[in-house]
Structures are given as C-alpha cells and as structure tokens.
Amino acid sequence: MENYILTVKDLTKNFGHIHALNKITFNIKYGDFFGLIGPNGAGKSTLLKILYGIVIPEAGDTFISGLNLQYDYKKIKYGLGIVPQDDNLDEDLSVYENLIIYAMYFGIPKKESIKKSVELLTFFNLEDKKNSKVADLSGGLRRRLMIARALINNPSLIILDEPTSGLDPEYRQNIWSRLRALNESGVTILMSTHYMEEAEKLFKNVIILNHGNIVLNGSIKEITLNKKSLEEIFLNIAKN
Ligand SMILES: Nc1ncnc2c1ncn2[C@@H]1O[C@H](COP(=O)(O)OP(=O)(O)OP(=O)(O)O)[C@@H](O)[C@H]1O
Ligand SMILES: [Mg+2]
Q1: Which domains does the chain have, with CATH numbers?
Q2: pLDDT, tens digit, for every residue of 3-23?
C-alpha cells in the first residue's frame, strides 16, 4: 500500500436499484496524473464524492495516504484538494475572500493564508480579479478559482470532477497547463473528463467506468498501443 496514495477495494454504492458503483478496485501511485473516464451516469461523480466524504458507500475499503477513509476522514481532508462537478463558490464574496474563508476551514493562520492566496491568484492569473465578486466572473474564471481554492491547504492529492467541461479551448488549455505544472511539482491528480483529447494529453493512467464497473484500467500508452484512439474505445464502451 505504501506505493499508492489511493487504494480502493470492492467499493460499492447503490441508489435504490441503480448500481452506481459495483465492487470497484483500483490504485493510484504517488505522483500520478490519473484519469477517470466514462459516459454520463457511469458512476464517476459517485466515486469522487465518496473520496471527498459526501457520499457514504455501502461496502468496500478506501485508503488515502495510508489512512482509512471510513475512520480517518478528518485527517485525510487536510491533505486533499477538491474541485466538485458543481460550482460551490460563494457568490456574494470576492475572489480573494473566497480563498481566505476557505483557508479558515483548515485552520490555516491568517498570515499564511494571505500569502498563499496571493500566490494562487498569481498562479491562476486572477490578480486583476482579486476584488471582483464571484457573481461577476465568467465560467472559465470561476473554474480557475475553484481549482485555486482547492490548493489553499497545499494538498498532496487533488481530485477534480470534470474541471474543464463547457470551457472554450483557450480556457481549457490554460487549465491543462496549470494542472500539468502542479503534477510536475509533485501533486498527485485524480480527474474525470468527457474529453478524450484531454485524457490523451494529460493522463498517465486511467480507469474507464461504465454502469458502475471498471471496464479498462491501464496506462494511456498501453491502452492506445494498438493504434486505437481513446475516442474509439470510449464510443465502443458507451454503446454497451
Ligand atoms: N443522489 C442520487 N440519488 C439517486 N441516484 C443517483 C444519485 N447520484 C447518482 N445517482 C445515479 O447513479 C448513477 C451514477 O451517477 P454519477 O453522477 O456518479 O455519474 P457520472 O459518471 O458522474 O455522470 P456524468 O458524466 O453525467 O457526470 C446514475 O445512474 C445516477 O442517476
Ligand atoms: Mg459526474
């Protein structure tokens, strides 16, 4: 387990008769850029919500940095950065205030949170929006702020649920370059996407989910070795 930042074993979640996750098992190595792919309703968000503690699974074990999610979530969350699929920024606050208030949840001292916020605003090119209200930001800027906010506690693992959906190509590339830089600095990334081009460009390893089952697990290089594009593989899976 020491080689893995995340270990998931036989994870199961049902919503009534829907098997959102069906005994899924996989691992993520430290430093990986790990992708989660699958059609609508495959179970991606359910899996990610379990990892960030807002959905409770029926069965299975999850370890993050060697800690058991079931018992040690409070400790785990200090090392975790979370970018959910639905935007949950505080509309009435400014960009800067969103960062500072979020830092409070982690008990980060004021001086440190100010320094970190300024650093993140620079990294995400949001300096000139520092005092703008979130309600006035475009979708792309809000997404950047969501990612910036997730980094306030210097997480070692960041989990993003479709962080580039609905963004224009320029914003998307902009987010790619920042995620790549983060990964190169040693942060492990777990991210879901519907864009196969994005998956091929960013991810080192992936799982493909369909109807709550893992239908493929491997490195992007291995999976596309037989010259099949990820897009083709995805479309075949989505048909079933
Ligand atoms: N709170 C809930 N109550 C009932 N059913 C749910 C709930 N959350 C998810 N589901 C169902 O579980 C299945 C998996 O949903 P999930 O949101 O995990 O899929 P997804 O892969 O994230 O899809 P998308 O690509 O559309 O975001 C779907 O059939 C969905 O309708
Ligand atoms: Mg989803």
Answers
A1: 4-239 (3.40.50.300)
A2: 899 999 999 999 999 999 999
